[in-house]
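User: Predict the structure for this protein chain, please.
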Amino acid sequence: MDDVYGKVEVYPNHFQDTEASVDCFPTRTRTDYSSRSRRHLQAVLKVMGAASILNLFSLPRLPWTSNSDEDDKVELTRAEVEALRSEIIDGEERESHLKAQLEHLDEILKSAQLSGYLYIRTRWTELPGEPPILDDVDVDDWLPRFVVLNGSCIYYYLKSTDLSPQDSTLLSDVVEIGSLPSFTHEDGTQRYAFYILTCHGLRFECSSLSIVQVDSWLATLTNKTHSVKQHRSIES
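Assistant: Here is the predicted structure, written as structure tokens:
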């Protein structure tokens, strides 16, 4: 026995087959698989619900990238193109008109001796042999006009931006200039006035809220008409 095994002691009955312990490899029952499937199904439903909510907030036909040539194309009908062309032409015409108005106003302000807004109304003086002219004092016919004294002429514009005056008066036709009594307008404002009488019997009555403006017009017109008459008398 010792010759076969030498000094190695062998215990034949030490290694014995043991049954696998039940606790080492636990088995999964059908209940465990059902619970796992249920949890998986709930997770899938949650993901699907979240996706449906995101779809509500998503905007249709919006490109996620900016390099899509198809999404940048806009198709217009012939009528729409013609309408756009007409609007562009109208805009250019309005721009040209406004530019001309500004240039005209700038030229007036540079060359005029006097300019500004005044309230104007016209009256006719009866000529010898004519019946008296009825003046309806109840009618408010004071109209704002942009008045310009330029050279030897007075121009009356509806607005300062108008290219052409509504009326004009030559200083050589003016025979009398004088002040008018101040009055209270129906809107409650105090107005100061003066008049310009022509040789044709036409009388321009002018008023303003500023007495300084009225005095300035009176002084300037008086000096201008006096110089024009002197110049005309010298020529004659």
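The chain has five helices and seven strands.
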